[in-house]
């Protein structure tokens, strides 16, 4: 039984972690890194259905992320309906067409060449689920008064990272898609004024034959400075 107590009038609950030996920690952390390193962004999806329970679980996993003042300032919209997916694809492709043809710089387009992206977004109709992550800029209480959320982008970014890890752990793949501008999603999904679209994440199985760019990840020396 976990012990509980009051601290300054607020409820606290005992927190314990299993104790690993240094050897165990080394092998666990290495195994976790090697497993995460097998996650890839995939752009070719299968239309094979995925049980809703899996999506429910990955959303709950994502929602364990730390957040400013524990406000959990996120809403996940899960789109399954073929009709809604079609509308999202049409609206996203319209914006992306503009982006690829006039809004993005030459340098940006060149940087994207190895990834093979363009304005066509068929995955928005093929993937069995589209998860649209919304950030909640503020809350409205019962009286309609604005209540603050804190570090909203940081919080929703953390939740999105855990979401991608949970998707990977379930044996599925995802694409972090950022159609720009994204406000068409608020309109199509009829979201309230306090919510802003953050990421559009198709989720499903990879297509039968899937190739991904042969990317290399930065070395420890490139990403870390020890003082
Ligand atoms: N949002 C566009 C373009 C795009 C931009 C970056 I930075 C990427 O890493 C990938 C794509 C699109 O989704 O195609």
Automatic annotation (TrEMBL):
Pfam families: Nitroreductase. InterPro entries: Nitroreductase, Nitroreductase-like, Nitroreductase/BluB. Keywords: Flavoprotein, FMN, Oxidoreductase. Residues 38-205 form the Nitroreductase domain. PANTHER family: IODOTYROSINE DEIODINASE 1, NADPH NITROREDUCTASE. This is Nitroreductase family protein.
């Amino acid at each position: 039984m976990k012990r509980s107590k009051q601290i300054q009038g607020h409820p606290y609950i005992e927190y314990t972690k299993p104790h690993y030996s240094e050897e165990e920690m080394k092998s666990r952390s290495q195994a976790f890194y090697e497993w995460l390193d097998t996650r890839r962004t995939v752009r070719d999806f299968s239309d094979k259905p995925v049980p809703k329970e899996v999506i429910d679980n990955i959303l709950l996993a994502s929602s364990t992320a730390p957040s400013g003042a524990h406000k959990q300032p996120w809403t996940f919209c899960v789109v399954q309906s073929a009709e809604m997916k079609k509308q999202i694809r049409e609206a996203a492709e319209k914006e992306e067409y503009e982006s690829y043809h006039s809004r993005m710089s030459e340098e940006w387009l060149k940087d994207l060449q190895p990834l093979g992206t363009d304005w066509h977004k068929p995955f928005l109709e093929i993937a069995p689920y589209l998860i649209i992550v919304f950030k909640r800029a503020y809350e409205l209480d019962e009286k309609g008064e604005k209540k603050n959320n804190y570090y909203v982008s940081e919080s929703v970014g953390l939740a999105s990272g855990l979401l991608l890890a949970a998707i990977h752990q379930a044996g599925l793949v995802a694409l972090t898609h950022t159609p720009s501008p994204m406000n068409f999603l608020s309109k199509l999904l009829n979201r309230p004024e306090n919510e802003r679209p953050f990421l559009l994440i198709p989720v499903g199985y990879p297509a039968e034959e899937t190739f991904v760019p042969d990317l290399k990840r930065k070395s420890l020396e490139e990403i870390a400075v020890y003082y």
